[in-house]
Write a structure and sequence with these properties.
Layout lengths: L12 H4 L8 E3 L9 E4 L3 E3 L2 E5 L6 E6 L3 E2 L5 E11 L11 E7 L19 E11 L4 E12 L18 E3 L15 E10 L2 E11 L2 E8 L10 E9 L6 E10 L9 E2 L12 E3 L16 E6 L12 E3 L3 E8 L8 E8 L9 E5 L8 E3 L13 E5 L2 H6 L10 E3 L3 E8 L5 E10 L8 E8 L2 E7 L13 E5 L2 H6 L10 E4 L1 E8 L5 E11 L10 E3 L5 E4 L6 E4 L7 E5 L2 E9 L2 E11 L4 E8 L2 E7 L6 E3 L10 E2 L5 E8 L7 E7 L5 E2 L10 E2 L7 E8 L5 E5 L6 E2 L2 E2 L2 E2 L3 E10 L7 E10 L4
Parallel strand pairs: 17-22, 23-28, 29-34, 35-40, 41-55, 47-55
Antiparallel strand pairs: 1-16, 2-5, 3-4, 4-16, 5-15, 6-15, 7-12, 7-16, 8-9, 8-15, 9-10, 10-11, 12-13, 13-14, 18-20, 19-21, 21-22, 24-26, 25-27, 27-28, 29-30, 30-32, 31-33, 33-34, 36-38, 37-39, 39-40, 41-42, 42-44, 43-45, 45-46, 48-51, 49-50, 49-54, 52-53, 54-55
């Protein structure tokens, strides 16, 4: 027997694709399902078992698989079943004869008498008998007999019990003392068959009954079993002159083979016109039978030949040839699968003219064609060479090397030379057409400015009407390059913030062709009032704000919607001005005028000079708030207290300060006569920061009047009388008003010191 079991019929794929042992045939159920099996009288279904014979004399029964089994490629198989032999038997002979499991090329088809246990004379194959009647002593026993050959001995009365063909038979000891076959309980039998690795023509048969090993040895085929490759699995039983009820149940026959996807493939092949022969790589089709062919051993035969093809990668043939393919799985004990066939039926080779259609994207004038997509043949493994003209193809010149991305105008054509793996050659014309161009037009979108960033607007790009193309898709890009390359897509086209500029819309139709439209984005700039300006008014006054004419609408911050608003005081205001559909917000401020401030006052002899800062020049000055002058100097002033008024150009309520003009003394005669003996400014002692200093003609300070000397000077310096002469003095203080006005009083004095 050759390695691995091959069934002659199809096995369920759901079982085959499990690379473990699977139950292929069975007799199970209640009642037993016998579909696919043939019952031979007196075998019958009785509940969950098959009763091969009733407890009567001269009975025969058998059951076999309906389909023949091909063992050509099997190296392992297994059969499990339960048997029971019971009944009353006969007075003369007791119970008999027994039953047999077999694989026979010529199974019994009718009654078989005698000691053959239901096996007919000259039966060829493997027989495993469970014998309960000793034909020599006509007594009871329990023996197992095995025959791998022909049931033809002894001559004239073939009986497996007495067949002792060397290396083809086995007879156990009587098992009655330890493992009797007769009884009410079923015995569980496991028969394993395996190709003997030391001699592939032999089988190693292992038999166990209720787990007890009965035999495990190699058997050599003899007689009609030599070279036998097909047969039937089955069971038979006979009673002879004795009687017994002999039954089997829970039969399971495990015969699996390597699963393949398909049994037959018919590839295109042709004969090389230059040689009249064909060559084919048979292994190229292996993946049509199994996944990962490298995991299998695959052998190729010319059908009917027992010799493997020596070079299947370059098999030579001259005409129609059938190849048998045997698939083996070295990693499992599955049977080889020899059902596969490769049918080689050479045909003339003819490449077909075809048309390719591509996009003229963005109306560029050319389409980019992958010439390899031209289905000029469905033959696998062909070689294609492309040429711009038929003349170039015939000459083998100017071959197109950029065929995966070949640019061509509408209606252009190229030619392809197609060579099959067998060397057959034909050429075909490829016509290159364009799909209709996607029509687009450029568009303009305008948007009002964004108040927080007036250089930008918020655009809904989907409102750009760039095409009337139906069933198209649009994508949006910031540049033409991005649109062509499909990069940096704008993902928020309904709310796109951008300054004035352009974007691009890629319009793609159902053919995958596209054109690109340019959309100009225009941000409408705000329009403001040129007449509405900030104002300065006197604090407490009111005024009018006027935005001017020419706008489509006005909305003031105080809720009014007129061109102007009145009665407005100091504060911050805004107005929304509508131009077209856009609103621009313009702010306006009304400031209080800045009050002028007296920086300092200078009193010199008979004049007062007022120094003003702040406010808005020109200033006006007054001593009575009635009569005003532009000069800041008041002349011919005498000793006393004066109120000075000042207002700026806004003519608001004037500010006022009170200034004290001290006693104006120009000569002292410190001679103790009680008249003009000293300068006395003690009357200013209530002023803030009062300082009284006397300087000689060189600018050196010679006296300082303060609280200690009651702001007086008697014409001395360091306790000595100063020389008669002219001296300068200054008196500074801060008026005790809210503005703390600094005052400076300066002049000269003559000191006459005589003894």
């Amino acid at each position: 027997m050759k390695k691995n079991l091959l069934l002659f019929f199809s096995i369920a794929l759901s079982l085959l694709f499990n690379h473990s042992k699977a139950q292929t045939y069975q007799l199970t159920g209640n009642p037993v399902v016998t579909t696919g099996w043939d019952l031979v009288s007196a075998a019958t279904v009785s509940g969950d078992f098959i009763r091969l014979t009733p407890d009567q004399t001269s009975q025969f029964g058998a059951i076999k698989l309906s389909n023949v089994i091909n063992l050509k490629y099997c190296d392992k198989w297994k059969v499990e079943f339960d048997f029971r032999i019971d009944g009353n038997g006969t007075t003369a002979y007791g119970r008999g004869d027994g039953l047999t499991f077999w694989y026979l090329s010529n199974p019994p088809a009718g009654f078989t008498a005698g000691g053959g246990l239901g096996i007919p004379a000259n039966a060829n194959g493997l027989m495993v008998a469970f014998d309960i009647f000793n034909n020599s002593t006509e007594g009871q026993m329990s023996k197992v007999h095995v025959l791998y050959g022909t049931n033809n001995l002894p001559a004239g009365n073939p009986n497996i019990e007495y067949n002792t063909t060397a290396n083809s038979t086995f007879h156990s000891n009587d098992l009655n003392p330890t493992l009797p076959f007769v009884g009410t309980n079923y015995k569980h039998v496991v028969v394993n068959g395996e190709t003997d690795p030391s001699n592939v023509n032999n089988w190693i048969i292992q038999i166990r009954i209720d787990g007890v090993l009965i035999t495990n040895q190699s058997f050599t085929p003899s007689g009609g079993a030599i070279g036998m490759t097909t047969g039937y699995f089955g069971f038979s039983s006979a009673t002879g002159a004795a009687s017994a009820r002999q039954s089997i149940k829970d039969v399971k026959i495990f015969v699996d083979k390597v699963p393949i996807f398909t049994n037959t493939i018919t590839p295109f092949v042709c004969l090389n016109p230059s040689t009249g022969n064909g060559s084919v790589n048979l292994t190229a089709y292996a993946n049509q039978f199994v996944n990962n062919p490298a995991n299998y051993t695959i052998t190729y035969y010319i059908t009917g030949s027992g010799t493997p093809i020596a070079n299947p990668t370059n098999f030579q043939y001259t005409g129609p040839t059938n190849i048998s393919v045997v698939v083996s799985d070295p990693s499992s004990t599955l049977c080889d699968n020899g059902d596969a066939r490769i049918i080689l039926n050479p045909q003339p080779f003819d490449a077909t003219d075809v048309t390719l259609t591509e996009c003229n994207n963005n109306n560029a004038g050319v389409g980019i064609f992958n010439l390899g997509n031209a289905a000029v043949t469905n033959i696998v493994g062909v070689t294609k060479n492309y040429y711009p003209t038929l003349a170039a193809l015939n000459a083998g010149t100017n071959e197109i090397m950029n065929w995966p991305a070949y640019p061509a105008a509408n209606g252009a054509s190229v030619y392809v030379k197609v060579t099959t793996p067998q060397g057959c050659v034909d050429d075909a014309k490829i016509t290159l057409n364009h799909h209709p161009t996607v029509t687009v037009t450029d568009a303009l979108l305008r948007s009002c400015f964004i108040q927080t960033n007036i250089s930008t607007g918020l655009f809904n790009l989907t409102n750009a009407n760039v095409t009337q193309q139906t069933n198209s898709t649009k994508k949006y890009y910031p540049s033409l390059t991005d649109a062509i390359n499909g990069t940096n897509e704008i993902t928020n086209p309904t709310a796109y913030t951008a300054p004035t500029g352009v974007i691009f819309i890629k319009v793609t139709n159902s053919n995958g062709c596209y054109s690109i439209a340019k959309v100009t984005l225009e941000v409408i700039q705000p329009v403001y009032s040129s007449v509405l300006q900030d104002k300065i008014i006197c604090f407490g006054d009111i005024t009018t704000l006027n935005a001017g004419p020419g706008f489509n609408g006005y909305e003031w911050s105080n809720g009014q919607t007129t061109q102007s608003i009145s009665g407005i005081g100091v504060g911050n205001y805004w107005v929304k001005l509508k131009t077209g559909d856009c609103w621009a917000t313009q702010t306006v401020k009304i400031f209080p005028s800045e009050q002028p401030v007296v920086n300092y006052v200078e009193i010199s002899n008979s004049s007062i000079i007022v120094n003003i800062v702040g406010g808005t020049p020109p200033y006006q000055y007054s001593l009575d708030n009635v009569n005003w002058q532009n000069s800041n100097e008041f002349k011919n002033i005498t000793r006393g207290e004066y109120t000075i008024y000042v207002k700026d150009a806004y003519q608001c309520e004037p500010i006022q300060i009170v200034v004290t003009v001290p006693n104006l003394i120009n000569v002292i005669t410190p001679n103790a006569d009680g008249m003009n003996d000293y300068i006395d400014y003690s009357a200013l002692g209530n002023k803030l920061n009062l300082i009284f200093n006397v300087y000689d003609r060189y600018g050196a300070k010679i006296h300082q009047g303060d609280k200690t000397n009651q702001y007086k000077w008697d014409g001395t310096a360091n306790g000595r009388k100063v020389p008669t002469g002219n001296y300068w003095y200054s008196v500074t203080w801060t008026e005790n008003n809210k503005n703390r006005t600094p005052v400076k009083f300066s002049g000269w004095i003559v000191v006459k010191n005589r003894e």
